[in-house]
From TrEMBL:
One of its GO terms (molecular function) is 2-oxoglutarate-dependent dioxygenase activity. InterPro entries: DIOX_N (IPR026992), IPNS-like_FE2OG_OXY (IPR044861), IPNS-like_sf (IPR027443), Iron_ascorbate_oxido_reductase (IPR050231), Oxoglu/Fe-dep_dioxygenase_dom (IPR005123). Residues 272-376 form the Fe2OG dioxygenase domain. This is Fe2OG dioxygenase domain-containing protein. It comes from Marchantia polymorpha. Belongs to the iron/ascorbate-dependent oxidoreductase family. Keywords: Iron, Metal-binding, Oxidoreductase. It comes from the Eukaryota.
Amino acid sequence: MAPPDVEFSAPLRLPSVIMSVKNVDTEKILSEQNAGARGNALGDALATLAPAVAAAAEAEPQGALANAVEVSRMLRDGKLAEVPTAFKFPEQMRATIAHDDFCDDKDIPVIDLTPVWAEDGAGMEKLVDDIARACETSGFFHVVGHQVPDRCVKQMQAHGRKLFELPLDRKLQGSFAAGSTAQRRGYSCTPKTVTPSPALIWQEGFTVLGGKTGQVDVESYAEKIWPDDVEQSKDFSQVYQEYAAHSMRLSLVLKDLLIKSLKVDPAHFEQYFESPMQVVHLTYYPPSPSPLEVMGLNPHYDMGFLTLIAQDDVPGLQLLGKDGNWFSVRPVPGAFCFNVADSLEALSNGRFRSNLHRVLVNKERPRLSISTFLAPDFNKSVDPAPELVDDEHPRVYRPFTFGEYMSTIRGAHLDHITNCGHLLDLVRIDASTK
């Protein structure tokens, strides 16, 4: 069963030359919600800047969209004196620590899944206890012993880099249709629609969707990006499909372990995974000349059930500690980084913790990550298992479907998300005063 489309606004991409000129109110252009108003504001800016636009067109024949790679290249070439305003985050939201500011006493645990494959009873008992402890504290842990071939991950990373190194116009051939209301798929640059943000984020991405089989809709996008290179298009698709299948298998294994760690009837959880949605997302974070003014991804909570991230060796992922301070997650070679998402927190009746996290960039090295998001069925009411609700542990969240959470609830509270608010707070049973 194909996952349903979720309606989002199409992102607005401004020509980089417009963003670079100080007397143009780029925030006003970006804030226009109506397409006609956007067009009028953009047209006024273009008319005012006709000479500059003409010069930019001559210097950049492809035309530079509001894309972090293009902006970064222009900055390195001396065409821009600073990061364009549209990418700058408000002072109060900017990071005050670097992307590699590690804190050993806050680092997330490493959990080995070897007992799963060895059918080690004593090892399994410790494993599920370790998972429960990690999910109750930071909501994050590294996964090793996962049986996803290292070759598969490295091939995916290599093809991801090859994709993002292409000229912008080639990559845009594989983007979702301009003006489409369907969920973002294919190539995207500086997206502002998945996680609402007060500024454009410093990244590029490539997203495809799938379901329980681990098969994803990648071929049509690859064919558009490499229309004259059938072999490259085929190789990219095959590698993506293999990775998606392995990551889906691992996601479902972790789902079973999470159920064991909650000590509840598995049948209650299984109903949410008859037709789950899988999202496999490549993200490329270019270097930035002013990394603390921008963000690779602004602070947010994941909305699905669980997330798995294959990172390269460049740090950037940061979590908010219980003490209210951010800390960097140290990449572990060969590991996946797991985190609890909102639906799992609700299904655990608040026992497991969906945590605020963000991504920072650096001046020297690009960063590549591969994220797999597992989401429950769209139309099933998210209800905790009966064993998790009693007089001492009353129900924390009202019933909602994941489809409602992703569209209606999210769509009505974009400002709340932009300001780092947790969407789950709006469905708390005691949320009537919020």
